[in-house]
From TrEMBL:
One of its GO terms (biological process) is base-excision repair. Residues 239-273 form the FPG-type domain. Residues 2-119 form the Formamidopyrimidine-DNA glycosylase catalytic domain. This is Fpg/Nei family DNA glycosylase. Belongs to the FPG family. It holds the Pfam family zf-FPG_IleRS. It catalyses: Hydrolysis of DNA containing ring-opened 7-methylguanine residues, releasing 2,6-diamino-4-hydroxy-5-(N-methyl)formamidopyrimidine; 2'-deoxyribonucleotide-(2'-deoxyribose 5'-phosphate)-2'-deoxyribonucleotide-DNA = a 3'-end 2'-deoxyribonucleotide-(2,3-dehydro-2,3-deoxyribose 5'-phosphate)-DNA + a 5'-end 5'-phospho-2'-deoxyribonucleoside-DNA + H(+). Its cofactor is Zn(2+). PROSITE patterns: FPG_CAT (PS51068), ZF_FPG_1 (PS01242), ZF_FPG_2 (PS51066). Keywords: DNA damage, DNA repair, DNA-binding, Glycosidase, Hydrolase, Lyase, Metal-binding, Multifunctional enzyme, Zinc, Zinc-finger. It comes from Nocardia speluncae. The lineage of its organism: Bacteria, Bacillati, Actinomycetota, Actinomycetes, Mycobacteriales.
Length: 288
């Protein structure tokens, strides 16, 4: 899933490649991805692209006061093409959800595709006058890179539940998903199952520092990358997430995994849980 660093990089990519262009034809290949109908998608055609922005994990393109907002969900992505096909795509086939064509001042005709892999289609597109009209944006907590340490401490102090769940709750803190929460907790040497509101002040400060360090580094590595390379850049920077069975780069212990129905997270027992192996929920159910 694209998280704060990748979405920030995609917003910067659009600022560099789409701002100044005029929106041309828009091809809708998956009608289910369009979550608003007034204004219609066609209202974007002929408008100048004047900016791009990010709200948590939402990506937006400003078309002269009318915004195209998307949430890429777990398997969505933005793909840029300098020479896109001139033929409209056939609806309902393949991963393509939406294609936006442009006319640049230099006479080029690029486009970007919003695509989604897999069978669970959750990618969402909104056409709105104000990003705050998107329900998911209206519910967001403070941005993870904008929150101050006192604000962060207050947020955790008021939160119930395990710290892993608190970090990925977009209504509490916006922008962090499963992957970067694993990395932040590993960097801070905190168990994913630690209780947020009872965390000692020293641990809370270490967690805030880790959050800033991990996200700032990831943004620095991501911004400026071609959109096609961002997924690989994200994977290459991970120390525990997606590395089950591999040695921890800090201590050498084996990275472990806890699995749920549709997701999993990774951690290092030596660095984070005092050597304790956390119960794998998937295996626990099988053994009942």
């Amino acid at each position: 899933m694209p998280e704060l660093p990748e979405v920030e990089a995609l917003a910067q990519f659009l600022r560099e490649h789409a701002v100044g262009a005029v929106v041309g034809r828009i091809d809708v290949a998956a009608l289910s991805a369009i979550k608003t109908f007034d204004p219609p998608v066609t209202a974007l055609s002929g408008r100048d692209v004047t900016g791009a922005g990010r709200w948590g994990k939402f990506l937006g393109m400003d078309c002269g006061g009318l915004w195209l907002i998307t949430h890429l969900s777990r398997a969505g992505w933005l793909r840029w093409a300098d020479n896109p096909s001139a033929s409209p795509p056939k609806p309902g086939r393949g991963p393509l959800a939406l294609r936006v064509h442009f006319f640049t001042p230099e006479g080029a005709t690029p486009a970007f595709d919003l695509t989604e892999a897999g069978t669970r289609k959750r990618l969402a597109v909104y056409i709105v006058h104000d990003p705050a009209e998107v329900p998911g944006i209206a519910r967001l907590g403070p941005d993870a890179l904008a929150v101050t340490e006192p604000e962060f401490a207050a947020i955790l102090g008021a939160a119930s539940g395990r710290i892993k769940n608190v970090l990925v709750d977009q209504t509490v803190l916006a922008g962090i998903g499963n992957a970067y929460s694993d990395e932040i907790l590993h960097t801070a040497r905190i168990s994913p199952f630690a209780t947020a509101k009872t965390m000692p002040a020293a641990k809370m400060s270490a967690l805030y520092d880790a959050l800033r360090a991990v996200l700032t580094d990831a943004v620095a590595r991501s911004v400026g990358q071609d959109a096609a390379r961002l997924k690989g850049e994200k994977r290459s920077g991970m120390r525990v997430h997606g590395r089950t069975g591999m040695p921890c780069p800090v201590c050498g212990d084996t990275v472990r995994e806890v699995s749920f129905t549709d997701r999993s997270f990774q951690y290092c027992p030596t660095c984070q849980t005092g050597g304790k192996i956390l119960a794998d929920r998937r295996m626990s159910r099988l053994l009942k």
